[in-house]
Automatic annotation (TrEMBL):
NCBIfam families: thi_PPkinase. Its EC number is 2.7.6.2. This is Thiamine diphosphokinase. It comes from Szabonella alba. It comes from the Bacteria. One of its GO terms (biological process) is thiamine metabolic process. One of its GO terms (molecular function) is thiamine diphosphokinase activity. InterPro entries: Thi_PPkinase, Thiamin_PyroPKinase_B1-bd, TPK, TPK_B1-bd_sf, TPK_catalytic, TPK_catalytic_sf. SMART domains: TPK_B1_binding. Residues 141-204 form the Thiamin pyrophosphokinase thiamin-binding domain.
Length: 223
């Protein structure tokens, strides 16, 4: 059993080491005011004028200056069987997590984060927020209600074999076997509010960045 390092009653903002905009961090902290950094994300936090309450990871990326300034808040997890993102997410107990600095950087880092999202079903609901996209893992068997508008982009990418049902998509997914090495569901579009349900874990839902509130409503407010 993994013991928590950070426990909050509301949401937590998780800041990784990839690209992040000041406005996105401000928006994240408005929804989830408790800031946790992933390794080198601590440098992002300090550069943008914020001190995280905890820094979690193997500490191979954090600068010496940040390490010294945040010495009492650093939690070294040395094992190499998981990524820093997994180390941090699995040690946060919160109603939800907004993760920044995970999209738009190295592709291998993004893929590792996507893999962690669909595997960590016991972790708090997590929304990845980037400059262009919002990404979350759809929970297995639970309805997802997205208050979208006609024309909004809705991409579905399976990280494992998944089937599902949909209402409000231009191209419905009923009867389709979706899998990463076969048919995927990218570049679909909403015709209005969208309802989704998937038979198993493994589906990533990808929306435009300006639909963060819709994603939040579906994954968190609707729980």
């Amino acid at each position: 059993m993994i013991l928590p390092i950070v426990e909050v009653t509301g949401g937590a903002t998780l800041l990784a080491g990839g690209p992040v905009r000041r406005g996105d961090l401000q928006a994240g902290l408005a929804l989830a005011p408790d800031l946790v950094a992933v390794d080198g994300g601590a440098d992002h936090a300090l550069r943008l004028g914020h001190e995280p309450r905890a820094v979690i990871g193997d500490m191979d990326s954090i600068s010496d200056a940040a390490r010294q300034r945040l010495a009492g808040r650093i939690h070294v997890i040395a094992e190499q069987d998981s990524t820093d993102f997994e180390k941090a997410l699995s040690r946060i107990r919160a109603r939800f997590v907004l993760a920044l600095g995970c999209l738009g950087g190295r592709v291998d880092h993004e893929l590792a984060v996507f893999s962690a999202l669909v595997q960590q079903q016991e972790a708090p609901p997590c929304l990845l927020v980037g400059a262009q996209d919002v990404v979350f893992a759809a929970p297995a068997g639970r309805p997802i209600r997205l208050p979208l508008r006609s024309g909004d982009r809705v991409s579905l990418f399976p990280m494992a074999p998944v089937t599902g049902l949909s209402e409000g998509l231009r191209w419905p997914i009923r009867g389709l076997d979706l899998r990463p090495d076969g048919r995927v569901g990218t570049s679909n579009a909403a015709t209005g509010p969208v309802h989704l349900r998937f038979d198993a874990a493994g589906m990533l839902v990808i929306l435009p960045r300006n639909r963060l509130k819709a994603a939040f409503s579906a994954l968190v407010s609707g729980d």
